[in-house]
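User: tokens in, sequence out, please.
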């Protein structure tokens, strides 16, 4: 076994596929592997003799997303396009031939997992949502978030990576029993120092089994995980799409947002939030603008 190997755990009936992130040792010096989920945002550990090598297709995206979620993405793309067409018709009332264009909300994603981040950025692009992303270890995100908010000035901030709850070590209300929930909370608080208004900066924070209640109380609009379950790698993306592509004069019902996620109400929770989508007109190109200016000058002369 080496770093980067794809494995599953025999003690859990090999139900989840992980990637070996690093190695450590227990109190007795026995070697353990630190594992990160391939399809879920969970971090775990296991002894080497509990691990089984897993065969993964060359297309890692097919493993990370899965056929069911790919179909969900396809449906989301179609629904978004239809929604924008309907909004356009409503905007123009069918009485003008002037072309309009939409401006979805801008996204900044801080992610503790570079592979997940790249997949998410690809999906944002497929959905037509402008997004920037930075891979930062969860424990360092709070140190960088203010500077990055100032640089990118996003409408929506995603703070995620990997997390897990260690029930065997005590009360679920104790932040010491979560691997990264405290790091997410510190990052949310630092982001709220930049922008305290929940509608001006929309924040999703958390990962698998994160302390949902404390993350929400720290200032996030949306967080995981109310039921302390694993969330899908793309759950933050589905939340972002709903907000980024809903009009600014609309308060998006929380039940609609949660319904759009993969893991549902046990995986994601939050509050009603205004959309970030704006319409503008006319739609133009630099070439057309130059031609129109020339024609105007010819008329005036």
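Assistant: Sequence out:
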């Amino acid at each position: 076994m080496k770093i980067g190997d794809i494995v599953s755990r025999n003690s859990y009936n090999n139900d989840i596929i992980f990637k070996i992130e690093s190695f450590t040792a227990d109190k007795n010096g026995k070697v353990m592997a630190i594992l990160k989920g391939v399809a879920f945002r969970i971090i775990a550990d296991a002894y080497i003799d509990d691990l089984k090598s897993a065969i993964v297709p060359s297309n890692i995206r097919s493993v990370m997303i899965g056929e069911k979620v790919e179909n969900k993405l396809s449906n989301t793309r179609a629904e978004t396009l239809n929604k924008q067409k309907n909004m356009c018709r409503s905007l123009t009332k069918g009485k003008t031939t002037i072309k309009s264009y939409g401006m979805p909300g801008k996204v900044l994603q801080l992610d503790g997992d570079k592979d997940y981040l790249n997949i998410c950025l690809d999906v944002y692009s497929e959905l037509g949502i402008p997004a920037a992303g930075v891979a930062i270890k969860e424990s360092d995100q709070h140190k960088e978030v203010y500077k990055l908010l100032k640089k990118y000035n996003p409408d929506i901030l995603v703070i995620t990576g990997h997390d897990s709850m260690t029930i065997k070590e005590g009360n679920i209300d104790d932040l010491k029993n979560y691997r990264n929930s405290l790091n997410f909370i510190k990052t949310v608080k630092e982001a709220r120092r930049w922008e305290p208004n929940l509608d001006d900066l929309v924040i999703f924070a958390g990962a698998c089994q994160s302390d949902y209640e404390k993350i929400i109380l720290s200032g996030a609009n949306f967080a995981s995980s109310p039921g302390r379950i694993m969330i899908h790698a793309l759950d933050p993306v589905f939340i972002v799409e709903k907000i980024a592509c809903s009009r600014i004069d609309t308060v998006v019902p929380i039940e609609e947002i949660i319904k759009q996620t993969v893991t549902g109400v046990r995986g994601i929770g939050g509050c009603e939030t205004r959309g970030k989508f704006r319409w503008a007109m006319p739609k133009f190109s630099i070439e057309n603008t130059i031609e129109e200016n020339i024609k105007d000058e010819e008329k005036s002369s």
